[in-house]
């Protein structure tokens, strides 16, 4: 069960995973050691799974980002998902219960690159029946 202090720690680390424990301790009015113990407990409990960075795709030459729905033959869904995870241009893969069986975040250099990825890479995976890209115009949050 998380208490209010744990929730504040999670919120602060979510905004910036590099927030010093001394800064968190000041906000909470507790010692840095207490913050370290709480963070360690959150990690051990699986609440905090990893620390990561957020990359700006355009700074790496990827000028199009697409949330792409992928439909498959039912018996091929897990095989297709595993294959999608292997592509370096796919950053995240989700199994979903919405309009599409799988959603993937695809980074492409431009429209031609995205078209090639959709048609010749994802579309040719055994078991894929439909590929529906939606280009992200602007990330708001």
What are the main properties of this structure?
141 residues, alpha+beta, Arc Repressor Mutant, subunit A, Alpha-Beta Plaits, 2 domains, four-stranded antiparallel β-sheet, 4 strands, 39% helix, elongated
What's the arrangement of secondary structure elements?
Layout: H1 4-15, H2 21-28, H3 32-44, E1 64-72, H4 77-86, E2 90-95, E3 102-108, H5 111-122, E4 128-135
Antiparallel strand pairs: 1-3, 1-4, 2-3
Helix pairs in contact: 2-3
Describe this structure in words.
This protein has 141 residues and is an alpha+beta fold. The chain is 39% helix and 21% strand. The chain is built from five helices and four strands, in the order αααβαββαβ. Strand 2 and strand 3 form a beta hairpin. The two termini are 27 Å apart.
Relative strand content: 15-25%
CATH-derived topology of the largest domain: Alpha-Beta Plaits
CATH architecture of the largest domain: 2-Layer Sandwich
> What's the number of helices?
5
